[in-house]
Amino acid sequence: MPERRTEVYDVVINGASVAGCAAAILYARRGARVALLERRSGMSAHKVLCTHYIQASAYPVMAELGLAEALDGIGAVRNSADYWTKWGWIKPEAETGPGVLPHGYSVRRESLDPLLRRMAAETPGVDLKPGHTVNELIAEGDRVVGVAGTSAEGTFAVRAELVVGADGKDSTVARLAGAPAETADNNRFSYFAYFRGIPHPEGRRSARVYYLDPDNAYVMPNEDGVTVIAAVLSKARLDEFRDDIEGAYRNFVRSLPEGPDIDKAEMISKVIGTVNYPLISRRPSGSGYALIGDAALTSDPLSAVGCAWAMQSASWLVGATSDALLGNGELDTALTAYTERHAMETGAHHHLIADYAQARPFNEIEAFMFEAAARDSRLAQHFHTFGSRLMTLEDFMAPDVVAHAEKVNGWSLSEETLRSLAEGPPVAEAHTAGHGTTSAVAGTEGGAR
Ligand SMILES: Cc1cc2nc3c(=O)[nH]c(=O)nc-3n(C[C@H](O)[C@H](O)[C@H](O)COP(=O)(O)OP(=O)(O)OC[C@H]3O[C@@H](n4cnc5c(N)ncnc54)[C@H](O)[C@@H]3O)c2cc1C
């Protein structure tokens, strides 16, 4: 049998989707030599199971990548959202008007993924290798020092200082490295479809997000006049979808208050969906390897944080490790710094998202904040900023905010809830399995999109 050829790089990244392409570009610009492996062979390959509302929290990294400019160039929608609640609409732009609040982008993955992959391939220092499937880690003692797998040419091996798993929810790198993981149930299922000809109220292109408690829906305009409409329901309603998925989906969308008129619009896709999507949180680094994007944290699709955190975690990793990779510092220390940053940025948010994914009715804090945000434009902005993941939980529930919301609502949180708030937000324990967060205020999920 011929000996397989081994190539050597500074970094090898497995997975050329949102997280992997972002990391490859950022590493290479800092001078690292990067192998970017992707099992799919076509440059136009894209993730189908995604509704691609990219939160504003990712704007700085999108700007750094040059992606924001490129997305403007292809007509991606600078996104914002209005939120339906039983207390009325939460309208974050009521005071500012459109285009003032921080924004991310809404752009179909069939546009985003090939664009990002092309940007990565064109970055000097990145060797994009489509059609390469990783199925083995190379180790020296306990340390991961490379990957191996198969391509159309046969087997291949790549050695590198650092192996990055950007290979999604079912990450091969994480599995082979035995990365500690925690999973949590997701008690909702979702179906979505694409439409042309959906008019948007007042000509604005804000998404409309429905908090039907416990069911949810969203109507999100994208580039090229295409709107994606998603139904995200409690699993208690799965039976309704058993015999006729499209019929049940259409009936649900028709039932939305002030909902889109899908009967006058053209549906341009099948109904796409998933009924089981558990949340997975893995420790984002170990000896010689790191995980980014969904490989590190697969949160609830309902909260629309996946693409933003994929790019942001790429940026956190590159920021923490690039000096060490280029010979200036200790890689293991840098990886620990990345793990801590990841937990600090995502831990409390993910904890609340996982709690809301139980599809239980609103808890007291949620009812309090949603009602107040529906009644007050300043609180509406505040709610949206938190949901855009631009604010910590501590700031979201700061004492002056709670006092203002009490005035607006005309009722107060219970003593017990106030006490739990005073105890503070969850503390990220970066060294435990997954994100290992504990919370005194479980269930303050708001402004998910
Ligand atoms: C129903 C649904 C709706 C969603 N809606 C939103 C939304 O509105 N907004 C949002 O921000 N997020 C949303 N998400 C989440 C979002 O899709 C993910 O968080 C995001 O795609 C993660 O990007 P990634 O690069 O980490 O992983 P992925 O996009 O999953 O990419 C992983 C890549 O690794 C490659 N790969 C895997 N294994 C191997 C291997 N062994 N060898 C080589 N290559 C490999 C894959 O081919 C793929 O290209 C949604 C998810 C779902 C399920």
UniProtKB/TrEMBL annotation:
InterPro entries: FAD-bd, FAD/NAD-bd_sf, Geranylgeranyl_reductase. Residues 9-345 form the FAD-binding domain. GO terms for molecular function: FAD binding. It holds the Pfam family FAD_binding_3. Residues 428-449 are annotated as: Disordered. It comes from the Bacteria. This is NAD(P)/FAD-dependent oxidoreductase.
